[in-house]
Amino acid sequence: MREMVQSDYDALCRILCDEEVMRAAYESAFNLEEAQNWLNRHLKRYEEYGFGLWAVVLKETNEMIGQCGLTMQDWMGRGILEIGFLFQKAYWHKGYATEAAIACKEYAFSVLNANRVYSISTFAAWNRQISLDVIG
Q1: pTM of the model
Q2: Rounded to an integer, what distance in angstroms lies between the CA atom of residue 8 and that of residue 38?
Q3: Maximum distance among all alpha carbons in the chain?
Q4: Which residue among 26, 43, 64, 115 is least crowded, i.e. fewest CB within 10 A of its CB?
Q5: What angle do CA 72, 129, 11 make, to 5 degrees?
Q6: Alpha-carbon distance 1 to 82, whole Å?
Q7: How confident is the model at residue 121, as a pLDDT?
Q8: Residues 6 or more apart from 120 whose CB is under 8 A from it?
Q9: CA 136/CA 127 separation, integer angstroms
């Protein structure tokens, strides 16, 4: 995993603009402007917090296949540290989300000294629950 950069925009669009992928986490796919705004928010999070959603890349090809990382979220009126992830559909059910989320959890506790880390999931994202259960 590494910080996303502007040149990841096309790969990010393959995730964020895919209706099926985004239905698993959000109400619908993003348009191109929303995808750029998403990338901009994470670039700012790197500066502000030192973390955000990172690009998950294949070691063999350096292809960005997803994103996983830590974000500060407002939940029930308080700020919480959350692990989040989204992957291209071709890479679902192959262990990438689980491996990346475990690395993020370890980073949160060992580097950021977090007391707790959350992952917020909706009913629509029930497929993700498998990964959430595995990472603890």
Answers
A1: 0.83
A2: 12
A3: 42
A4: 115
A5: 65
A6: 17
A7: 60
A8: 73, 75, 82, 84
A9: 16
Per-residue pLDDT of the chain (136 residues; tens, 9 = 90+): 999 999 999 999 999 999 989 887 788 899 999 999 999 999 999 999 999 999 999 999 999 999 999 999 888 888 899 999 999 999 999 999 999 999 999 999 999 999 999 887 654 444 544 444 545 5
3-state SS, 28-90, equals CCCCHHHHHHHHHHHHHHHHHHCCCEEEEECCCCCCEEEEEEEEEEEECCEEEEEEEEEECHH
Kindly give the pairing relationship between strand 2-3 and strand 64-75: unpaired
Element (H, E) at 53: strand 53-57
In whole angstroms, what is the distance from residue 90 CA to residue 16 CA?
14
Give the type of residue at 82: E
Residue at 19: amino acid letter: E
Q: How big is the chain, counted in residues?
A: 136
